[in-house]
Specification:
globular; 107 residues; alpha+beta
Length: 107
């Protein structure tokens, strides 16, 4: 359940809230395919702890991003992010608080 009353940043909670509604979830790659997006060079991920699930749904996108493309990911687990993204040619360039900037160094 998503707490829609939480202002200034979202959060996901297991607790039911008064206005329940369903949200369709699609893999990132599927959304880009539907919209026929062929090129993307910057992605910001801030998914309140679900960044690894998002990355699982964007393997095609990560492989296809060109050298110099950037990912900004908010996460408290930068070590695992570095390991996963290194396999797609990304290296961590900078960290500010929990925001980690990754740049694709090679395809």
């Amino acid at each position: 359940t998503v707490d829609v009353m939480h202002k200034g940043g979202g959060r996901v909670t297991e607790k039911a809230i008064s206005s329940d509604f369903e949200i369709a979830i699609k893999p990132f790659d599927a959304i880009l395919d539907e919209r026929e997006v062929s090129r993307i060079s910057f992605i910001k991920i801030d998914t309140e702890g679900y960044e690894f699930e998002v990355l699982l749904g964007m393997k095609k996108t990560l492989r296809g991003m060109k050298e110099g493309s950037c990912l900004m990911i908010e996460s408290t687990n930068h070590v695992d992010l570095e390991t996963i993204l290194a396999s797609y040619g990304f290296t961590k360039a900078e960290t500010i608080a929990h925001d980690h900037l990754f740049i694709k160094r090679h395809a």
